[in-house]
Amino acid sequence: MDKIDYKILNILKEKGREKASDISKEIHLSVSAVLDRIKKMEESGIIKGYTVMVDTKALGNDVTALMEISLEHPRFHDSFTEMIIDHPNIVDCYYLTGDYDFVLKITCSSSDELERIHRTIKSMTGVSATRTHFVLKEIKNVYTAIPEEGKKTIHSKAAP
Q1: CA–CA gap between residue 8 and residue 94 (Å, rounded)
Q2: What CA–CA distance (Å, rounded) separates 88 from 125?
């Protein structure tokens, strides 16, 4: 990865549907070179896929909550994560260190729906405790962070 790759990534991060021809104009590189670089980043796994970011409120999901979960024992990890992966209202799940084992980001249409989701999670075998936080306002929501070129920790060469 070099400065040009980072420029391409940042453009795609902001405008995922940007045409290679427009990217080439912005970074002063041929269209074929831009396409080659994108393809290499896809093949190497740096670019994992493309997605659409939606306004959850516009879709009727007015409630966002963060729920911390503790499990009784690590043996419940797999069954818990399988349920979480399949649940359509759980949009993010992180395995943690500290007092709780997981934190979930949940979006839903109402506090009544959140209560139903909460009861479902609390009733799962192995769940010992939960703590739920209602999100009042979204301040920042960035799908991914791209390190500045030269400050990365992956794929970097060690100093001589």
Answers
A1: 28
A2: 20
Rounded to two decimals, the pTM is 0.76
Topology (CATH) of 3-43: Arc Repressor Mutant, subunit A (1.10.10)
Q: What is the DSSP string of 94-138?
A: EE-SSS-SEEEEEEES-HHHHHHHHHHHHTSTTEEEEEEEE----
pLDDT at 87: 94
CATH number of 63-134: 3.30.70.920
pLDDT in tens, 89-123: 999 999 999 999 999 999 999 999 999 999 999 99
CA dist 160 and 158 (Å) reads: 6
Domain locations in the chain? 3-43, 63-134
